[in-house]
Amino acid sequence: MPFPALWRRAALLLMVLLCACTTPYHPPLVPSATFPGLIDLAAQADGREADVLLVHGICTHDASWASVTVAQLARALSDATTTTTPATAIVARNAAAPAVDIVPATIVTPAGRLRFSALIWSPLTNDLKRQLCYDQTDKSALCTDAPPYPYTRARLNARFKDGLIDDCLPDALIYQGVARDSIRQRMRAAVLQVLSAAHADVPLVVIAHSMGSKILFDTLLSMTEEPAGSPAAQLARQAVDRMRFLVMAANQIPLLSLADQQVPGATLAAAPDSLQLLLRQRQASQRRVPGGNLTVVAFTDPNDLLSYTLEESKYAQQGVTVYNILVSNAPTWLGLLERPDTAHLEYLSNPDVGRLIACGQPISRRCN
Fold first, then answer.
1. Cα–chain-centroid distance for residue 12?
2. How far is residue 158's CA from residue 156's CA, in Å, rounded to a whole number?
3. How far is it, in rounded angstroms, from Cα 264 to Cα 236?
4. What residue numbers bound the domain in which 147 lies?
């Protein structure tokens, strides 16, 4: 076939594919919502630093995830915002027992300062996940010493087996199994370290992705159940009381909480999950200050196979407002497929999501 004809056919095919590519929730589908963004909460800190807890979800992560996520939020705020991030995590390591890394960062805005603490729990599961390295077609950074996979896989099957199945899904299985208490204890140590350095009366924001939400909520709940006068119980209850903005991206609690329940009878109601129980404690608390309402925002890409919207009736109560916001993290091709890995992993790198987290809804005048 002559080259010009081949080029024309290729161009036609490209045009067809581009026309068949859609992002149905760009811009996001936002309900009639009103909530403050990071920049508004920074302003409410009265010259001190508002606290932001960042927690990643399934799949291998390291300190670079924190740097990229904080930088994305900083860009969403304004050109006047600056970010400083230490090069390494600050938690001490025990060679015999991997720890949760704490990666600190500070965003300085004209409205105030935001103190980020990113909790990187991936080191806790990495050694176990290496047991699956022999099965990866294209070896990940965890698996560079593993022998080549000797069999033939289709390219897309190989990509999703290497990533979603061999690297990401094991995190959920590990946490839901016998390692849960150990993971929660190490998360407790990291949370204690972060909360001990916080002011008791400044706003707290939590931004959690995927299974990171459940690990954090389970940990905070278990801390509140420790003896009432203990530092852990006091700091956890204080954190729940001063929480003003809870962002859940790729919410998996409806799925993961099934592992916490018995097979029900015909009339047995579902047991409340750890987030519900924490919000009930918050409702009963006498320490909440006037105007200290909490907004819970769940970002969901409907094409994300591992994400669920929040049932508002389970979580909304006096002082707690719940919004579900639908987003598209990647294009949908021919109405048939959005890449499953991108759909699940790219919430916090999605500019639409970053803008809403940073600037609230409607967009804060401080972001203009």
1. 40
2. 5
3. 31
4. 56-260+270-367
Residue 41 lies in a domain: no
Beta bridge partners of 361: 35
- Look up residue 60 and give its two tokens: 């291998």
Residue whose tokens read 């990071």: 38
**Interior/surface letters 196-225, b for 16+ CB within 10 angstroms, e for the rest:** eebeeebbbbbbbbbbbbbbbbbbbbbbbe
Is the residue at 321 inside a domain?
yes
The C-alpha atoms of residue 201 and residue 41 are separated, in whole angstroms, by: 12
Give domain status of residue 32, yes or no: no
Taking a C-beta distance cutoff of 8 angstroms, is the pair 331, 23 a contact?
A: yes
> Distance between CA atoms of 146 and 161, rounded to whole angstroms?
16
For residue 80, what pLDDT is reported? 46
Contacts made by residues 129-132, CB under 8 angstroms, sequence distance 24+: 129/60, 129/166, 129/167, 129/170, 129/171, 129/174, 132/166, 132/167, 132/170
Residue whose entry in the numeric block shows the structure tokens 């959920």: 172
Listing DSSP states for 55-105 in one string gives E--SS---HHHHHHHHHHHHHHH-TT-EEE--SS--S--BTTB---EEEEE
- In this prediction, residue 337 carries a pLDDT of 87
Number of domains in the chain: 1
Alpha-carbon distance of 50 to 271, in angstroms, equals: 33
pLDDT attached to residue 265: 60
Measured between alpha carbons, how far is 280 from 168 in angstroms, rounded to an integer? Answer: 31
Closest by CA to 236, choosing from 209, 211, 251, 216, is 216
- Crossing angle for the helix pair 351-359 and 63-77, nearest 10 degrees? 70
Task: Let me know if residue 77 belongs to a domain.
Answer: yes
For strands 243-249 and 294-300, give the pairing.
parallel
**Token output for 304:** 């994300």
35 forms beta bridges with 361
Please, what are the averages of pLDDT over each run of 10 residues along the chain (368 residues)?
A: 59 52 92 94 92 97 96 80 53 65 94 96 97 98 96 95 96 97 98 93 96 98 96 96 97 93 70 95 73 92 96 94 97 87 95 96 90
Would you call the peptide bond into 27 cis, given omega within 30 degrees of 0 as the criterion? Answer: yes
Q: Give pLDDT, residue 11.
A: 57
What was the pLDDT predicted at 269?
A: 72
Residue 92's pLDDT is 44
